[in-house]
UniProtKB/TrEMBL annotation:
Entry-linked Pfam families: Aminotran_1_2 (PF00155)
Source organism: Psychrobacter piechaudii
NCBIfam families given in the database record: C_S_lyase_PatB (TIGR04350)
Transmembrane regions: none
Annotated Aminotransferase class I/classII large domain residues: 54-374
Keywords from the UniProt entry: Lyase, Pyridoxal phosphate
GO molecular function: cysteine-S-conjugate beta-lyase activity; pyridoxal phosphate binding
InterPro entries: Aminotransferase_I/II_large, C-S_lyase_PatB-like, Class-II_PLP-Dep_Aminotrans, PyrdxlP-dep_Trfase, PyrdxlP-dep_Trfase_major, PyrdxlP-dep_Trfase_small
Record protein name field: cysteine-S-conjugate beta-lyase
UniProt-listed Enzyme Commission number(s): 4.4.1.13
Sequence similarity: Belongs to the class-II pyridoxal-phosphate-dependent aminotransferase family. MalY/PatB cystathionine beta-lyase subfamily.
Cofactor: pyridoxal 5'-phosphate
């Protein structure tokens, strides 16, 4: 079927985190799309509601098979049911893996800029944050492997939290780049926790590589974390997976989950997960075409009206990283100027020092909303 991504759906007064305002501010921030979910997902929920019994629910063979098929057909990642562990979210999984791989006081390596919970969860787990800045080359971020190695050695880093694809920079790390990271981590016995929640939002002409698919022989130190929530815009449903190929590590993770009874998801999460991976492909394909058009639209608009913003074109996701240093000299003032103009973007500084005077804009909304939001950005900065 043909989906209509131009449709404007009123989300005010729905408890939406994104649309939290009491006025007509346009939200171009948190990673949540203003698109209705795929029809097969909505139909699957409807069937559950019509059945009317919402009792205790376990994972079915059909659910495992849907996850296995999606990942093997798209990314060549072979999984068995025993290698899939369910978790309430990717962020809770990050915490769980830090808990397993570290002791209080241990050092954890992250890149800068990075999705903020990488830092907050590391600190909450009693670990030291060791940060390695990504370097910008020809408009895209790259790892600074030399810097990472120095820091791993000096701080005896225990875990590298990898963001693959990268948020907020939108990089889809190539197999060669990931291989180099793997070699480095192997050399110093650093465990790798790869957050791959943006995997399915990889855009035209880029190829996503699951870190786990490279980690043969190092599987006891590697997990992949992913979810259907970002891909299919069902974040309110919650639910995610930990992929773990090492049997002993899988047992450890499951034991850890027993502590808080965290190994079960709810009926709606299982329902959505299965229908999304079985029948959501058509929606996703069309959503990515629309997102790519909105990225082009945004780049053109900014080139015309705010030509001194340096834009990093994403290779995955609908999040665009904007260097606004030509238009501002204070992070708070930059954010406040936008809020005064009734548009909200994420302030770059929340992603680390590298985010100074940067903004992250979410373009996953009907183009009419995006156009109005961009005109307010122009009004605030020009
Ligand atoms: C890199 C990354 N990881 C994790 C999450 C959130 O995951 P969850 O809602 O499953 O905890 C996000 C949400 O934006 C994200 O960008």
């Amino acid at each position: 079927m043909q989906y209509n991504f131009d449709e404007v759906i009123d989300r005010s007064n729905t408890g939406s985190i994104k649309w939290h305002y009491t006025d007509d501010t346009i939200p171009l921030w948190v990673a949540d799309m203003d698109f209705k979910a795929a029809q097969p997902i909505l139909d699957s929920l409807q069937r559950v509601v019509e059945h009317g019994i919402l009792g205790y629910t376990k994972q079915t063979d059909g659910l495992y098979q849907a996850i296995i098929n999606w990942h093997s057909s798209r990314y060549g990642l072979s999984l068995t049911a025993e290698q899939i562990v369910f978790s309430p979210g990717v962020v809770p999984s990050i915490s769980l893996m830090l808990n397993l791989f570290t002791e209080v006081g241990d050092a954890v390596l992250i890149n800068d800029p990075i999705y903020a919970p990488f830092v907050t969860k590391t600190k909450l787990n009693g670990c030291k944050v060791i940060s390695s800045a990504l370097v910008e080359k020809q408009g895209r971020y790259e790892f600074d492997l030399a810097d990472m190695e120095v820091k791993i050695k000096k701080n005896r880093v225990k875990v590298f939290l990898l963001c693959n694809p990268h948020n907020p920079g939108g990089r889809v790390w190539t197999a060669d780049e990931l291989q180099a990271v793997l070699e480095l981590c192997k050399k110093y016995q650093v465990a790798v926790v790869s957050d791959e929640i943006h995997q399915d939002l990889t855009l035209r002409s880029h190829t996503f590589t699951p870190f786990l698919s490279l980690a043969k022989g190092y599987e006891h130190m590697t997990v992949g974390l992913t979810s259907m929530t970002k891909t299919f815009n069902v974040a309110g449903i919650k639910g995610s997976m930990i992929f773990v190929k090492d049997k002993a590590l899988a047992t450890q993770i499951k034991q850890q989950q027993q502590l808080n009874d965290e190994y079960e998801l709810n009926l709606f999460a299982y329902t959505v997960m299965q229908s999304a991976y079985e029948q959501g492909g058509e929606w996703l394909e069309q959503a990515l075409v629309y997102i790519e058009k909105n990225i082009d639209f945004t780049l053109q608009y900014l080139a015309t009206h705010l030509p001194d913003i340096k834009v990093m074109r994403p290779e995955a996701s609908y999040l665009v990283w904007l260097d606004c240093s030509a238009y501002a000299d204070d992070d708070k003032a930059l954010y406040d100027a936008l809020r005064d103009a009734k548009v909200e973007l994420n302030s770059g500084i929340q992603y680390g020092e590298e985010g100074h005077l940067k903004l992250r804009i979410n373009v996953a909304c009907p183009q009419s909303i995006l156009a109005e939001g961009l005109s307010r950005v122009k009004q605030a900065l020009a």
